[in-house]
Give the backbone structure.
Amino acid sequence: WDPKRRPCCTIKDFRIDLEGLPRSEWNKSAALVFAAEYLKRHQGHQGENLTLEYVSEAWLTHVLALKTRYKVKQLDELDRKERKARNRRRQRKHELYSRRLQTAHEYKDIKDRAVFIVESLGQDGMSSDESDHEGHRGEATYYILDKDWRSKQITAWLRMLDSLHLRLRYNGKWQATAGAWPHFRMAGPNESKGAPVKELPVDFYCRNWYGAQNEFAREQVQAKEQSGNLAVPAQHAK
């Protein structure tokens, strides 16, 4: 559109620019279109004796108010979508914790150790994830948000429980049992921004991470005595 050649629109296809500045070239042109039509219809009515400039200026002031309301609505929509995404992530995290704890109770040879690990970590100790198309239909890929504070041995136990859960679902046969399947998760490039779980045995924390913390940070974590051998049992190791 060339503002030197023609108006931006006509009264029949009247449009304003809510993305640009309130006094953008488009909006100033639209204001003149509106003012001309307004004067044609209302000039002289009820004692009105308005000028084109006056009506145009009044319209541009109105556009500023419209633009403000539009921005607020857009921000509200983004906030609503973000809240829904956070709730979905929180729900997946809860399901992951419950599934791992249930699996830990199913295997007698590792039950005591596995239940202790999962319950100590709690739901906050589970890795959250983010979807590649959060909230959309279709098969999503969920990228794990790595917890840099958690030890690799603890992560190995959790991965083992995930594998054992799938074994339970197949029940030793090729036909899977009924129920919803866990969503597909894979390692992602991002780290979790969540704070570490406090008061865990010191060997639950990544050695490098814990060693890099200053005295104040360690006091906040309040690590307990070492829990013992965290090696994954050979019969369940991949």
About this structure: The mean pLDDT is 84. Strands lie at 129-131, 142-146, 185-191. The longest strand covers residues 185-191. Helices lie at 25-42, 52-106, 111-121, 152-170, 207-212, 215-221.
